[in-house]
Design brief:
about 280 residues; about 85% helix; about 0% strand
Length: about 280
């Protein structure tokens, strides 16, 4: 059941979730002489705002037992819009506060990319990297014949084992193509987070506050396809294609219109002030 294709898929996921963001981080820090603490700030802020704080309203709104549970869980539009807006509000607010407070003394434009690498890179490690590690453990247990014992123990404890019973088939169904798709999606997501970081950095450093809600909107739109996939409206391939295209377009527009503008402004300022 668990063949070489499964292990190849997991290896690709681990490379995309751990090695890729690590390589991007090292390359950027070495070539631009940037500070690792800026990258670390991006990683910590993502974890605090996206994993810890954002899940408070998610746990409240998307609770099936609540009177409003049916509205948020079974209405595709409400589910997609609410989930996307929560992601946008919490992550972009964290980004905004990081540049406004924690990194307020770091004014060079490279700071925005360093933060974006930390934010998007750690997200990739947390989501794809951890998923790869879990899948590797499950695959090893299934192949060794010990996974059934886990199911039996959970059933004996009174837990719902329906999800566990489906895992062997899901793990066996992993293909190298799926691993490549997941890696490509995470790579483009990192690009998006770099672009969003440049946008919010510019908003803070140049007092253009209206760009902050724009970042929230752009982020929310990024999460809509994934929410529609979870509701069964989009298939996996369409979802991945839309996400990748959207992330690349947003990054290119922000890079060309804002990051390059910051470079031009810096050169102009140096020309006026002199050496």
């Amino acid at each position: 059941m668990i063949g070489t294709g499964t292990y190849a898929a997991i290896a690709i996921m681990l490379a995309g979730g751990i090695l890729l963001p690590a390589a991007i981080c090292i390359w950027w820090l070495v070539t631009r002489k940037e500070r690792f603490t800026t990258v670390l700030t991006g990683a910590v802020i993502w974890f605090v705002f996206a994993v810890l704080l954002e899940h408070i309203p998610i746990a409240i709104l998307f609770r099936r037992e609540a009177p409003w549970g049916d509205l948020f869980l079974n209405n595709a539009a409400v589910y997609a819009v609410t989930g996307a807006l929560l992601a946008g509000i919490f992550e972009e607010t964290g980004r905004y506060l990081a540049f406004r407070i924690i990194l307020k003394k770091r004014t060079n434009r490279e700071t925005s990319i360093s933060y974006g690498i930390g934010h998007g890179g750690f997200e990739a490690m947390f989501l794809l990297g951890m998923s790869g590690i879990q899948n590797l453990l499950y695959a090893s247990m299934i192949k060794a014949g010990t996974f059934q014992g886990v199911i039996d123990q959970a059933a004996a404890a009174g837990a719902d084992v329906s999800a566990l019973e489906k895992l062997p088939e899901q793990i066996a169904g992993l293909t190298p193509l799926m691993g490549c798709m997941s890696t490509f999606e995470r790579a483009t997501a990192i690009l998006f987070h770099i672009g969003a970081s440049v946008l919010v950095f510019y908003a803070v450093r140049h007092s253009k506050t209206w760009l902050y809600p724009l970042a929230i909107l752009l982020h929310a739109l990024m999460d809509v396809p994934a929410a529609l996939y979870q509701q069964g409206i989009l298939n996996l391939y369409a979802t991945e294609a839309i996400l990748a295209l959207y992330a690349i377009v947003v990054f290119v527009i922000i890079y060309r219109s804002i990051y390059r503008k910051m470079e031009a402004d810096s050169v102009e300022a140096e020309a006026v002030t002199g050496p």
